[in-house]
Write a structure and sequence with these properties.
The chain contains seven helices and four strands, in the order H-H-E-E-E-E-H-H-H-H-H. It is mostly helical and 169 residues long. It has one domain.
C-alpha cells in the first residue's frame, strides 16, 4: 500500500462511516472528502435537508473538472487565467499527492458508479444510499489501486461492508 493510497482510502472509509459522502456535490463527493481530510477539514452533512458544508475550502478544485450525467468535463471553458488554473492544479496535487488527471479519474469512478444524488437522500432509506455509495467506492478503490500499481484485494471493499447498516440486509 502506498502512502497516498492509504491516506485517500482512509479518508473515504471515514466519510462512508460518518455519513459525509454524497454524489453530486463537490464538497462531499469522493474527491471532496479526500481533499477535506488532507486539509484537516471536516465535512458536515448531518442535516440532509441542507447542503453539505466543510470547515475548509475543500471545493477549491471545482473549476478544474466535473463529472455530470456520466460525462467528464475539463473546465477549460470557465474563464480563469492559466496561472490560476495551474495554481489550483498544483494545490490539489500538493494536498493529495494525486495529479489533477488522477483525481478526475477518482471523481469519474464515484460519480458514474452511483445513481442517487445527494438532493434525493432525504426520500431514500439509509441502506439504499449506502449500497449505492458502496458501488461507487468500490470503483474508486479499483481506480486508486490501479493508479498506484497495487494488486486488487477484496479486503478494501470488505471494509465498507462493515458498516452496521449493510450487515443486516
Amino acid at each position: 500500500m502506498t502512502p497516498r493510497f492509504e491516506k485517500a482510502y482512509n479518508a473515504l472509509v471515514k466519510a462512508f462511516f460518518e455519513g459525509t459522502l454524497a454524489k453530486g456535490t463537490c464538497v462531499a463527493c469522493a474527491v471532496g472528502n479526500i481533499v477535506a481530510d488532507a486539509q484537516g477539514g471536516v465535512v458536515d452533512f448531518s442535516d440532509r435537508s441542507a447542503l453539505p458544508h466543510c470547515s475548509s475550502d475543500n471545493g477549491f478544485w471545482q473549476p478544474l473538472f466535473s463529472t455530470d450525467g456520466g460525462h467528464q468535463e475539463r473546465r477549460t471553458n470557465i474563464i480563469i487565467t492559466e496561472n490560476t488554473y495551474s495554481k489550483l492544479s498544483r494545490n490539489l496535487e500538493a494536498l493529495t499527492n494525486y495529479s489533477e488527471d488522477e483525481m478526475a479519474q477518482i471523481e469519474y469512478a464515484f460519480e458514474t458508479n452511483t445513481s442517487i444524488y445527494f438532493l434525493n437522500y432525504g426520500a431514500i432509506s439509509e441502506h439504499v444510499i449506502l449500497e449505492d455509495q458502496y458501488r461507487g467506492l468500490c470503483a474508486v478503490v479499483d481506480v486508486m489501486l490501479k493508479l498506484d500499481g497495487i494488486e486488487p484485494d477484496p479486503k478494501y471493499a470488505a471494509k465498507f461492508r462493515e458498516h452496521k447498516s449493510l450487515q443486516h440486509a
